[in-house]
Amino acid sequence: MSDTQTQPSKTAAENGLKRNAIGTGGIAFLVISAAAPLTVMAGVAPVAIATGGIGAPAGYLIAGAVLTIFAIGFMAMTRHVKAAGGFYTYISLAMGKTVGLASAVLAIVSYNCLQIGVYGLFAVQTQSMLHFIFGLDVPWPVVALSAVAAVWFLGYRGIDVGAKVLGVLLVAETAILAVMGAGILSHGGAHGISGSSFTPENAFNPGVLAILGICFAAFMGFESTVLYRREARNPDKSVPRATFIAVGFMSVFYAFIVWTVVQAYGDGDVVQAAGQLSNGMFFATINQYVGPWAEVVMYVLIVTSVYASQLAFHNAINRYVYMLARDGVLPAFLGRTHSKYKSPHRAGQLQSLLAAVVIIVCAVLGADPYQQLLIWVNTPGIFGIVGLQGLVSVAAFIYLRRNPAAVTNRLVVPLSIASAVLLFAVVAMIAVNIELLTFADTLTNTIILLVTPAVFLAGLLTARRLRTRRPATFERIGSFEIHES
């Protein structure tokens, strides 16, 4: 065989991701860590309780049920297509390359919003931990930039190393929440144990519907299981298993923990407590029901929880960029992997540099790390990902109708369109109640709401431009993960 014939396959092998690196558990750890269970509980659940009342735990079950329906159609398409390109590949296959590329652009921007914004939360939580335990006051930009370096380093070392670290951190943060829940129940709560949170009148009250955006935000990243297909062992089984394990675990665990906190204060007093204690609610609760030592541990673990989330999103972003580079849409150097670790290290370097630039700009402008960097940057990411989930549901419906051989259960097709309707309804609810996420003025909220459609439109225009000026590249959109063995 000639050199010209062997060169493409040699190049593909050199720039390929590491095969058979992670199994079901590793993938599940990656995507659950992206959601940062301790962070979304201690940092955001008090807002859900203050607004949703004692029915707040049901909000997490509702979100989990909708996302489970979404996952059924998503995984049915995944088993048949066998691609690792995530939203990008699936939407391209079913709805065309133009919409597919626009979805890829929106996914990259949305995940970056989620990842970069959370550096603000990391800085705030780490500042609180250092002050609470050691009495130290460290400037937040120093903390955030140190986190960028730490995330880049583990992402550079490869997916298997990152999965092991995330596994340890996830077990630790889950354990401290479970210890708090057990402590509350063992003491019988404030006034005995009540199941009122799950009665229809409390579970479906207007307050719970208003906090659905908060509840869905707690699951961000679980859908990225398919991005690790090329690095997974036995992906036909491990990817679907990890997906359902992730969404099932998070929905039940979140509902359980929030319900136990309701018990800690009682049905009649928990809303007032959530309003007064705010982000300190979980720390005060674990101090009261478990002990001061547990509060110290929670302060430490909430920092590692945010770090785990950052690393997981960093990995997901890098793989999206890698796929687009291999399809020829982005510069080729971003589609190269490390010769030893097989990580998409060039994409990782670019993502870390972008995060550092945003942090430095915010610091120079005097932005608040929580309000401006976290909340305002994060919210467009939530819109984008939930909207993309809705589009993927439409894509699954179209694809499965066109390919009856991929349908193993008659309910899959109707469930796909049902999930699309539900997810787009959630997007509308988030928009209507955006002030619950941003605590911002009308102008700021309007700008935030316009980010997602503006990015999607930019993606559509980019695709149209490619089709006219670089037709060969346009034809490759969504093809790398389908055709490369």
Secondary structure blueprint with pairings:
Blueprint lengths: L2 H12 L9 H12 L1 H16 L3 H26 L5 H9 L1 H38 L5 H18 L1 H28 L13 H4 L2 H5 L1 H6 L17 H31 L4 H8 L3 H9 L2 H35 L18 H21 L3 H34 L9 H21 L2 H4 L3 H28 L1 H6 L3 H4 L2
Helix pairs in contact: 2-8, 2-12, 2-15, 3-12, 3-13, 3-15, 4-12, 4-17, 4-18, 5-6, 5-17, 6-7, 6-15, 6-16, 6-17, 6-20, 7-8, 7-15, 7-16, 8-12, 8-15, 14-15, 15-16, 17-18, 17-20
Report on this structure.
The chain is mostly helical. The protein has one domain (15-479): Up-down Bundle (Amino acid/polyamine transporter I). Helix content is 77%, strand content 0%. Helix 3 (37-52) crosses helix 12. Residues 1-13 and 480-485 have low confidence and may be disordered. It is found in: Cell membrane. It is a multi-pass membrane protein. The chain crosses the membrane at residues 21-48, 54-75, 87-109, 129-153, 165-184, 204-222, 242-262, 296-317, 350-367, 373-400, 412-434, 446-463.
- Major pleated sheet: none
Q: So what's the oligomer here?
A: single chain
CATH superfamily descriptor: Amino acid/polyamine transporter I
Tally of alpha and pi helices: 22
Strand content: under 5%
Task: Spell out the helices and strands N to C.
Answer: HHHHHHHHHHHHHHHHHHHHHH
Radius of gyration: 22 Å
User: In CATH's first tier, which class applies?
Assistant: Mainly Alpha
Mean pLDDT equals 87
Distance between the termini: 19 Å
The helix/strand class is mainly alpha
DSSP E strands, number? 0
**What are the low-pLDDT stretches, counting only 5+ consecutive residues below 50?**
1-13, 480-485
